[in-house]
Structure formats: C-alpha cells, structure tokens
Amino acid sequence: MSDPRPLLMIPGPVELSPAVLAAASGPPPSHVSPRFLETFATCLERMRRVWQADAASQPFIVAGSGTLAMETAAANLIEPGDRALVLVSGYFSDRMAEILRRNGAEVVTVEAPVGEAPAAEEVRAALARGSFKALFATHVDTSTGVRVDPEPLCRLAREAGALSVFDGVCATAGERFEMAAWDADVYFTASQKAVGMPPGLALLTASERALAARAARKASPPPLYLDWHSWLPIHRAYEERKPSYFATPSTTLVTALETALGEILKHGIEARIEAHARAAAALRSAWRALGLRFVPRSDAVTGNTLSVLLYPDGIDAAFLPKIAARGVTVAGGLHPAVRTTSFRVGHMGYTVTQPEYLKKTVEAVAGALQEAGARVDVESAVEAVSQA
Ligand code: PMP
Description:
- The chain is of the alpha/beta class.
- Helix content is 41%, strand content 16%.
- It has 14 helices and 15 strands.
- The strands form four sheets. Strands 2-10-9-8-5-3-4 form a seven-stranded mixed β-sheet, sandwiched between helices. A four-stranded antiparallel β-sheet has the order 11-12-15-14, with helices on one face.
- Strand 6 and strand 7 (146-147) form a beta hairpin.
- Helix 2 (34-51) crosses helix 10 and helix 13 runs antiparallel to helix 14.
- The protein is globular.
- The site of 4'-deoxy-4'-aminopyridoxal-5'-phosphate has 12 residues, from helix 3.
C-alpha cells in the first residue's frame, strides 16, 4: 500500500530513514541499563566524528530543541557585561543576539543585507574595535538560506582572543564543518534537521577552551539544566559505560541517535556532506529551469540544506496548498523581509539520499506553478533534478 502521508520537505522536521524510525519506535530503555550506557557512549563517540572534533572536546546530548542549545552556549560562556559579536544573516542570528542580551551580554552586530553573508572584512574591523568574549554566527540561517563560511571566522575570532560559536541547527551533518582543524569552540544542532531524527534533542560539542571558559566563570552559575557542569560528570560516566544520573535523558531519542549517526558515518561524514551538496545543486538547476529566483544572492552564500525561493510575479502563499495537494509539504517564508514573498524547501538528512523525493518535490512545485498560471517548463526541471 502506498504511504498516504505527504512528503515532508520543510527545513525540519525531516523525513526519517526506516531504521531511524524503527529505533525511535521501541519501548524506552532504562537510562542506567548496560545497553543504554553503551548506546549513549557510542553516540558521544560518533558525535565527535560527525563534528570532526578532537578527543578533548565534549559532546553534550540534552533533551530539548535547537533553542535550548543556543541558550546553553550563551549561559555557559557569557557573564554579565561580556561583549559578544553576532553576525546577522537572518532570523536565527537575531534570536541568538536576543538570548545573549538576556544573559547580560553587550551585543555588537555585523549585519548583512537579506540574502548576503556578513563580509569577513567587516567582521575583522568589528573585532578590532574592542575585546570580545565570543563571536556568534549562524552556519546556515533557515530564514534566508544564507550560509556563512566558518573557517575564516574561526581564525578571525582566534586572532582577536575571542571564542567562536556556530549555530549549526540547519547545517550540522549537511555542511562542511571541521571543528578540530578550524579550532572552533562550540558547534550545536538539533536532532530534527540534517542529523535525520525526530525533534527533541539538542546536540552540542564544546572545545576544551570553551569548557575552560565555563570553569573560569566568576558570575553566578548558569541555570542548573543548562550548566555544562551539571552534565559533564554524567556524560563522562556514560562514556566510561558507568551508570549516572542528573536529569533523565530521552532514552528513546538517544537510541534513535545511535542509528542516525551510524547511518551518517556508514560512508563517512564527507560522503554525507557531499550528498547534501549534490542534492542542493540538482534542486538549484531544477528551480532555475522553472524560472524561480533565490533569496541568497549567490551560490557561494547558498546553504546546501534548504532552498529559499521567491514567488514568481503574481503568485503568493496561496500557491503552497497547490503544492500540498500534490503530496509534498513545503514551508512558507520566515524572515520578516521575505515572509510573504518567499517559500522554503528543506533538503537534508535521509532525504538527500532519496532521488525520488527530490523528483517528486520538483514535480509538485512545477505542477503548482502551472496551476497558478505560470508558464513553466516542467520537463526540463524534472530532467535537471533527475540528471544531477
Ligand atoms: N537555529 C536555526 C538555524 C534554526 O533553523 C532553528 C530552527 N529552525 C533554530 C536555531 C531553533 O531550533 P528549534 O526550533 O529546534 O528550537
């Protein structure tokens, strides 16, 4: 029997692989059973490989969404009065700035016009104008589709004596990120994106230097649930396969995480990232064949994990149900500047390994455009996505 559900092509949650779905559907194990300790330890080891982080870095697996990971980074690293440099490339960098302010930071922003990434030269100049505790950037901002290049940002932060923190919620496991080689300090994501899981886990890896910054904190400690010092002993015990307790982990989701990370690493993290790049390129040629235009202003700043597309003239959000009627769910606009003029198609995780998902999505968008009165070449769009 064919699956009557629409294909979920929003920028998270995403379609799951059959194995992850099965792993997420079992009875919950005890959080101190030997099997679960093995699972948790394996997840930590696999996170270091997916994050390309060194042995001294500490992955954290905590129940919560991506926003919890943002809160955690801010609460551990920022003391009242610290200066934080935030690169603004969309809605989620604005959220990071707000979280930092609520943690008492003096926030300085480097803003890019919608569709562009902040220029490295401006970042360098801003860093030179005073001392900063940390630089914060959104690897791929889900509201604009814009990707920043973290490697030079890590270097600039290091030269300025600042920590570098990256929101990888719409990027991790779908975009290149070499935490150890680039000497980044914090990289976090949420389970429902390119990791290919249901929502519910905040996944964060902190460098040795970031942990030292928490240890050197003079202000009052962070909220108990956010404090790395609450979680460190438990994570260290789990990695040694020893039972421990601070707050009950989502044992079901951690079980699914072991499978999801295992699938990512089956052919290596590079291969998984390359699959995202290939799927993104295939879709970009299909969108171009349909005459669609992009919110990101160049391919160089376009993320591989989603497409943020402008409605053609005369078409608006009323067109989205026409896509849904063809069995595919996409998302509306999010960034205030393009909320009513753009729509978003997510392509991350298991989805990028399924060419028929991509083809079905292009067919649905093309058919909906036709129905809305646009003159489009459906055949070349489908051919573009199939060939690539
Ligand atoms: N950062 C980015 C880049 C995101 O895309 C999202 C979610 N779309 C978040 C942070 C917040 O994550 P969550 O919705 O899981 O709290």
